[in-house]
């Protein structure tokens, strides 16, 4: 398959991110999927709030609480690379129907067990792991279908809008989850998450995907090795992966330990804190196109990492709920600036026939770093206290930023066309 390369200005994101940020929503196919995804994301955030809060009711151990985050992301080490290879070998629509159905069953069973008071800390971690397994299998194919539901010129803004949708859910899902938990318990939140997947399933079932063309051939093992060889020989891809790993490993303390910080404020307070984080991310996503025109990707990511480090340190020191809300808002603004830049760079770092495999490697580094970091910071918090763990995490972010400064983020935008036969 012949691939054409389009180049853009050095150290910048694709230009059409700034000039047509909302254009993909004018395309009915993408708009329908985006709305269904926001509903599903909202359910996921309700699930996260419910799992984190339920663990604090079952045990006060900071390590066990942090393992909830680790259990969600730990499956990335087991299946993300094979999932990426599979997504390049099989019909992604059918594959996504299977993974979405898996998550419905996992969330539904956990909800029923919780309502009947049959959940222990280890049972909660087990089902969180099972749900995370489905999510990890889902992710490479999910991100790889974006070029198939938008025109090529709208691919970059569609990636950014996916982040916006995720953070719309982040803004409202946790607060809604906190209200549901306070009124009816975590079990109901888990069941609502199971129901939230049906919008995406309905879209995938009705979607008349263009005639499928197998973009990779052979066995999963061979496809995986081909993807690894590509990454090994592409310096730009290695730079993106190194920058992603340095950030995710150091920055995972705040999401992992937030249930401990929020405990004095109750389930509703925990949901509101996550909601302020989401509102900050939503504000950052809205500002990103303009900010990108003024600053290079490297400067933007560096500034946001320093800001997130400062807010991580502050989260361990502030004592009032209102100040903690402001800290979470600023943290969310920095978080989306970092991840949006990294995600768009990852989406555009390879040709289409390798897209799912390359994205699986990016997700391995991102989510794997979060899983390992969550466990490390949780263990440190158990020994030395939450404020000390957050301080060390903030310092690690700054040190990591300095250590990888020679791995600069630049943009090489491949022709963003799906590997399918169109009518």
Describe the structure.
α3 runs antiparallel to α17, α12 runs antiparallel to α18 and α13 packs antiparallel against α18. The relative contact order is 0.19. It contains 18 helices and four strands. It has a single domain, classed as MFS general substrate transporter like domains (Growth Hormone, Chain: A), CATH 1.20.1250. With 423 residues, the chain is mainly α. The two termini are 18 Å apart. The protein is globular and about 50 Å long. The strands form two sheets. It has a two-stranded antiparallel sheet. A two-stranded antiparallel sheet has the order 2-4. 77% of the residues lie in helices and 2% in strands.
Considering the chains and any ligands shown, give keywords for the structure.
423 residues; mainly alpha; Growth Hormone, Chain: A; two-stranded antiparallel sheet; 18 helices; 77% helix; disordered N terminus; disordered C terminus
Describe the protein's topology.
Layout: E1 5-7, H1 16-19, H2 28-58, H3 62-73, H4 76-89, H5 92-115, H6 121-144, H7 146-149, H8 155-184, H9 186-196, H10 198-206, E2 211-212, H11 220-232, H12 235-251, H13 253-262, H14 266-294, H15 297-315, H16 321-347, H17 355-384, H18 386-403, E3 412-414, E4 420-421
Antiparallel strand pairs: 1-3, 2-4
Helix pairs in contact: 2-3, 2-8, 2-9, 2-10, 3-6, 3-13, 3-17, 4-6, 4-11, 4-17, 5-6, 5-9, 5-10, 6-17, 8-9, 8-14, 8-16, 12-17, 12-18, 13-14, 13-17, 13-18, 14-16, 15-16, 15-18, 17-18
């Amino acid at each position: 398959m012949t691939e054409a390369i389009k180049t853009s200005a050095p150290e910048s994101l694709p230009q059409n991110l700034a000039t047509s940020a909302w254009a993909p929503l004018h395309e009915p196919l993408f708009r329908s999927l985006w709305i269904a995804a926001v509903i599903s994301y909202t359910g996921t955030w309700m699930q996260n709030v419910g799992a984190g809060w339920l663990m604090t009711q079952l045990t006060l151990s900071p390590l066990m609480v942090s393992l909830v985050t680790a259990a969600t992301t730990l499956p990335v080490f087991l299946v993300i690379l094979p999932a990426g290879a599979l997504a390049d070998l099989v019909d992604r629509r059918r594959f996504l129907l299977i993974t979405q159905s898996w998550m419905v069953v996992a969330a539904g069973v956990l909800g029923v067990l919780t309502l009947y008071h049959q959940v222990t800390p280890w049972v909660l971690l087990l089902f969180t792991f099972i749900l995370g397994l489905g999510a990890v299998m889902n992710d490479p194919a999910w991100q790889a279908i974006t070029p198939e539901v938008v025109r090529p010129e709208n691919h970059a803004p569609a990636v950014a809008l996916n982040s916006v949708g995720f953070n719309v859910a982040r803004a409202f899902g946790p607060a809604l989850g906190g209200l549901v938990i306070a009124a009816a318990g975590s079990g109901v939140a888990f069941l609502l998450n199971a129901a939230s997947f049906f919008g995406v399933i309905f879209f995938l079932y009705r979607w008349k995907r263009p005639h499928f063309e197998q973009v990779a051939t052979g066995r999963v093992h061979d496809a995986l090795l081909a993807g690894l060889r590509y990454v090994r020989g592409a310096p730009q891809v290695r730079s993106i992966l190194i920058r992603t790993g340095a950030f995710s490993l150091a920055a995972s303390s705040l999401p992992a330990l937030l249930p401990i910080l929020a405990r004095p404020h109750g389930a509703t307070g925990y949901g509101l804190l996550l909601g302020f984080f989401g509102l900050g991310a939503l504000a950052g996503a809205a500002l990103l196109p303009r900010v990108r025109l003024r600053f290079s990707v490297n400067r933007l990511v560096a500034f946001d990492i320093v800001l997130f480090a400062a807010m991580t340190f502050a989260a361990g020191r502030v004592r009032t709920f209102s100040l903690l809300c402001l800290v979470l808002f600023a943290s969310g603004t920095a978080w989306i600036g970092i991840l949006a830049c990294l995600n768009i760079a990852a989406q555009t770092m390879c040709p289409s026939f390798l897209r799912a495999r390359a994205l699986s490697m990016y997700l391995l580094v991102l989510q794997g770093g979060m899983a390992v970091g969550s466990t490390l910071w949780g263990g440190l918090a158990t020994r030395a206290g939450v404020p000390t763990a957050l301080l060390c995490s903030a310092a690690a972010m700054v040190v990591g930023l300095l250590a990888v400064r020679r791995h600069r983020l630049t943009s090489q935008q491949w022709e963003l066309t799906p590997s399918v036969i169109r009518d």
